[in-house]
Amino acid sequence: QIQAFVFDLDGVITDTAKFHFIAWQKLAQRLGFDIDHEFNERLKGVGRMDSLNLILQHGGVILTDEQKDKEAAQKNDEYVELIADMSAADLLPGAREALESVRGAGLKTALASASKNAPAILARLGISDLFDTVVDANLVVNGKPDPEIFLKAAAQLGVSPNACIGVEDAVAGVQSIKNAGMYAIGIGDARVLTRADAVIDGLHQFDVNRFIVKD
Ligand code: B16
Ligand code: MG
C-alpha cells in the first residue's frame, strides 16, 4: 500500500538547470574554457563539489582544495542571485497540481534534492507548505545514486521505503530510488531512464490514481 511520494526538485518541480548552467559557464570562462548544454546534462542531479570536479576535468584544469572551495562559493553566490528572481511562474507544468493531488489522496509528500538551496527555491515557488518534509544536500553524506537521500526522506516521513514512490528526472536519481527499494517514476525519456518502473514526459502527465491502490 503506497503511503508517500518523494519528489526530486530540479527537472521535476522546476528547471534550475538553466541557472546552474549560467553560473557554471561563468566559472569555466574565469578559468579559460567553455562548457556547452550537452555537457550540462551530465551535471543534473550531481552535487555541487562533484559537479565542480567534472567541470575542472572537462577543462583540464587542476585546482587546490582551497581554490575549489573559493570557486564553488563564488559560483553559488552567482546562482543564489539568479534564483532570487524565481516565482510560481517557474513551476514546471502540472507540478503544483501533482503535489495537491497526492495530498488530496491522503498521502504524504517529501522532497529529496541534491541542492543545498532547495528550501529557498521551494519558498520562491510558493510550495513549501505542500511538503511534509524536505531532505536536501545539507542533511546527507552520500549523493545520488546512493540511496541515502531517499531513505532519509522515508525515515523523516515515518513511512517504510517500499510504501514510497520516488519521482526523478536523472539517471543517478532513478538509481538512488531503486537502491532505496522504492517504486520509481522517471520524468523524461524511457530509453535513458531504463531502471524506472514507469516513465512520463512531465508532471503534467501525472495521475496519482495510476500509482496507488484505493481501498
Ligand atoms: P546546489 P536536484 C541538483 O538538484 C541539480 O540538479 C544539480 O545540477 C546541482 O549541482 C545540485 O542540485 C547541487 O545544487 O549547488 O544548489 O547545492 O536535481 O537534486 O534537485
Ligand atoms: Mg533532478
Report on the architecture of this protein.
The protein is α/β, with parallel strands linked by helices and 215 residues long. It contains 8 helices and 6 strands; from the N terminus they run E-H-H-H-H-H-E-H-E-H-E-H-E-E. The chain has helices at residues 17-30, 37-41, 48-59, 65-83, 95-104, 118-125, 148-157, 171-179; strands at residues 4-7, 108-112, 133-135, 164-168, 183-187, 198-200. Helix 1 crosses helix 4 (65-83). The longest helix has 19 residues, at 65-83. It is globular, with a radius of gyration of 17 Å. The model has no long low-confidence stretch (mean pLDDT 96). Magnesium ion binds next to loops. Keywords: Magnesium, Metal-binding.
SS strand fraction? 5-15%
**Helix content range of the residues, please?**
40-55%
The N- and C-terminal alpha carbons lie at a distance of 9 Å
User: Uncertain regions: pLDDT < 50 for 5+ in a row?
Assistant: none
Order of helix and strand elements from N to C terminus: EHHHHHEHEHEHEE
Coarse morphology: globular
**Distinct small molecules:** 1,6-di-O-phosphono-beta-D-glucopyranose, magnesium ion
Spatial arrangement of strands, main beta sheet: 3-2-1-4-5-6
Number of helices: 8
Kindly state the number of beta strands: 6
- The radius of gyration is 17 Å
Describe the largest sheet: 6 strands, parallel
**Content-based structural category:** alpha/beta
If you average the pLDDT, what whole number results? 96
